[in-house]
Amino acid sequence: MPTQEPADLKWERIDGWAYPISPSAGPGRRPADGPWSCFARTPMGAVLAAYTIDLRLAYVDDYAAAVRQQVVPGIGQQALLEKGQQPSEVVTDTKGFVIESYSPDDAVVSLYVVHQARNFTCSIEVQWRNGDWALRALPDGSTASGCIESVPTRYVAWGDD
């Protein structure tokens, strides 16, 4: 598993949000108003997909199409469609990640972020589907689970600072 962010990773600010961009891990496609896609089928590709897809869902022009494309079908996807597009919580700083589990078909990524000057760790699951990573939403439509207020004991540092 990665012990540091890729050497080719850069952070790009768009509308106040910082997005990780890596030629080797993704996203390979970044339309201004749509979902970003084409992530590598690697542990780092899963990390970038988990972070980016979750954040971009709050800002795409065609929310329903993005959810159908980038969320695994099932009760969680249906709940997201029923809830409709929601503004994203303001994350003021992205501190790190941990790959909790990885296979070429599934990954669980924990993200370490700062929200309202408090440290949080949240897990996001992704699944390889139709040639790219997709979020696996929970039955209530949440895209992150197990969010706890804490500084993780282990993580790979990354962020746009």
Describe the 3D structure.
The structure is a single chain. The chain has 161 residues and is of the alpha+beta class. The chain is 19% helix and 33% strand. The protein is built from three helices and eight strands. Strands 3, 4, 5, 6, 7 and 8 form a six-stranded antiparallel beta sheet that branches. Strands 1-2 form a two-stranded antiparallel ribbon. Strand 5 (118-129) and strand 6 (132-135) form a beta hairpin.
Task: Give the tags.
161 residues, alpha+beta, 6-stranded antiparallel β-sheet, 3 helices, 8 strands, globular
Please provide a brief summary of the model.
The chain is globular, with a radius of gyration of 14 Å. It is built from 3 helices and 8 strands. It has helices at residues 43-56, 63-70, 75-83, and strands spanning 10-14, 17-21, 93-102, 106-115, 118-129, 132-135, 145-149, 156-157.
Q: How are the elements arranged and paired?
A:
Layout: E1 10-14, E2 17-21, H1 43-56, H2 63-70, H3 75-83, E3 93-102, E4 106-115, E5 118-129, E6 132-135, E7 145-149, E8 156-157
Antiparallel strand pairs: 1-2, 3-4, 3-8, 4-5, 5-6, 5-7
Portion of residues in helices?
10-25%
Order of helices and strands: EEHHHEEEEEE
Strand content: 25-35%
Q: For the report, how would you describe the main beta sheet?
A: 6 strands, antiparallel
Count of DSSP helices?
A: 3
Structural class: alpha+beta
Number of strands: 8
Distance between the termini: 23 Å
Gyration radius, in Å: 14 Å
Q: Label the overall shape.
A: globular
Oligomer: single chain
Overall average residue pLDDT: 90
Low-confidence parts, pLDDT < 50 over ≥5 residues?
none
